[in-house]
Amino acid sequence: QVQLVESGGGLVQAGGSLRLSCAASGRTFMSYYMGWFRQAPGKEREYVAGSSWSGGSTYYADSVKGRFTISRDNAKNTAYLQMNSLKPEDTATYYCAVRPGAVWDYWGQGTQVTVSS
Question: Which of 78, 89, 102, 114 makes the best surface tag, with the fewest CB within 10 Å?
Fold first, then answer.
């Protein structure tokens, strides 16, 4: 099985930046599609960003377009989410996930991002 561990969350003021990391261990699925999700209290889980192995195919939620960038270092089995121009509405627990096949099979435990106004 695959283990995913997120890091890089924290408290930041509005307008600031954070970079989240997702380190994978065990079986390697970083050559497959991976993504970042977030969930805040009272809100549905949101698919924030996704990337193919090469980065040639990406997805961004409308709420983060132009502010967030997903990237990956497949040799290090690590993915990143660069978050710029953070807003209080970005406050959530952020999860990374890997999709080796048709579904998001593996998930991290999450890292908390809190953006103050």
Answer: 102
